[in-house]
Write a structure and sequence with these properties.
It is a single chain. The N and C termini lie far apart (86 Å). This protein has a domain of 63 residues. The protein is mainly α and 91 residues long.
Amino acid sequence: MAEYSNLFVVLMGMGVVFFGLICIILLTMAMGKLMQEKDGRTQAAAPGKSEPEVQRPDVRPEVLAAILTVLSEDAGTTPYGLNIVDIKKIK
């Protein structure tokens, strides 16, 4: 059996790892392009069918989190046990 120098083993190992990483990058880029083309075709095929718009409250997520925390403390439950349907500002 042939004896390989330590330098050869290190360089061969690093070469294999970087080759594998480059292959993963190329595969990810190719799959991204394929999925992007697929999404573009499905959206272009059905322009008349759109999801109904859901009106979102004009409340920042931080304010919504604070309201949810206060309500859950008052109710004695976790914030995950509450389902906020609508928030309206009081004038």
